[in-house]
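Open question from group meeting: does this chain pack into something compact, or does most of it stay loose? Before anyone orders reagents, we agreed to write out a predicted structure and look at it together. Recording both the input and the output here so the notebook holds the full record.
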Amino acid sequence: MAGDDTETRDHWWWRPGWRPGRSFYTWHFLVDDQPELHEFVTRIRSDLDKVAVLDLIPPQWLHMTTQGVGFADEVSEEDLEAIGAAVTERVSGFGPVEVRLGSVLADAEGVHLPVRPVEVVAVVRRAVREAIGEVWGKGRVPEAAEGFHPHVSLAYANTSGASLAPIRELLDRHADVVPLTLRRVALIDLNRDEGYRWKTVLTPSLGHPGS
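Structure tokens returned:
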């Protein structure tokens, strides 16, 4: 995802449809129960804290963006319940998903840990998309099926035009690859008035090994 970016771009612009007070239903993998990731974050924060153009993500708000549903004021309670039930049924047989995070990268809008292998996360996303399509029809499933690049962001750029070179030099000392075990996917009600904050609506289990 780092691509050919050479300068930062402010991450906090208001994307289409967003406004203060509005929230969005979306599926994320939450990582609050991942001790090895949080140990790595603790180590790297002392360096990232020195970079004025970065807003560090508090550990409790770390996440892996997966699949949107829609703005909360446009999704009925009945549809949300139906989507939640459909996702729960579809993901229950996967079993825990083992991935690796890293090495840490800086792109225009922040610092993140890419996820590998992508496919084991993408298969869960496809199941979520199929569940949304089951309720709303395939033509109403939001976001593109292609171009999925799962990652866990550690910081967002708060300024445009700053050089990425010194940030990347700083990150060179943190080449760790962090193992991650994903056992649940979460439906959340996401607000961005003060950074990304959410209320958890539902956390379907991916099931047990061999299920």
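Observations to bring back to the group:
The helical segments are 35-48, 77-91, 118-136, 165-171.
The CA atoms of residues 36 and 172 lie 19 Å apart.
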